[in-house]
């Protein structure tokens, strides 16, 4: 199973275009959006190319290939522009290895506040804008970083799950972090 992860687009059209170009190049069938899709939120500056309606229009072209969860900056008004559901606080993705991915934004559940998980499960979240790929206790934690507002000196990045390995990749093609979850 292969998955492509992006988090914290915050309504930036250039960042969304960059994500979708990499997604298309990857050949992966499923794009997982980890919230904060259209709105920049009150604590962030207005991002470069801020255009939520255009971001929604572009993402809607991929609607049947998207799994999305709600971020703390997402609202029911945002959902009205999108052709795919994104108002759930979390989603479960079952891997062929019997492991489960708990996919969420990170403002409600994260590495510090986890739902009931089994050993070897993976919690996948954004929200912090800081990439992470590690085993933490009995679970794995994966954060692809941020597309629009990367923090802590990291480049804008996205995530991949391929062959039991989770990777954070910058848009220059450099692997930032990599962790086997098998």
From TrEMBL:
Cofactor(s) demanded: a divalent metal cation
Q: Quick check: keyword Transmembrane helix in the entry?
A: no
PROSITE patterns xref list: UPF0025
Enzyme Commission number(s)? 3.1.4.-
Q: What CDD domains does this protein map onto?
A: MPP_YfcE
Keyword Hydrolase (UniProt): yes
The UniProt record lists the Calcineurin-like phosphoesterase domain at 1-162
Q: What class of enzyme is it?
A: hydrolase
- Output one GO MF annotation: metal ion binding
The family database entries (Pfam families) matched by this protein are listed as:
Metallophos_2
Gene3D superfamilies attached to this UniProt entry: 3.60.21.10
Alphabetically sorted, this entry's keywords are: Hydrolase, Metal-binding
What family does the database annotate?
Answer: Belongs to the metallophosphoesterase superfamily. YfcE family.
Supply the name of the protein: Phosphoesterase
